[in-house]
Amino acid sequence: MNINIKNNYAPNIEVHEGGVVNLRQDKNGRWNIEEAEDADYVTVEKETLVNSKHSVPDRLKTQQAEELMENLVDGGILKDNWQPNGLSGTERALVAKALSDRLDIKEVWQVFGQIWDEKPETLRSYLNKAFDQKKSLKFQEKLKNILG
Question: How far apart are CA 134 and CA 46, in angstroms?
Answer without folding.
Answer: 50
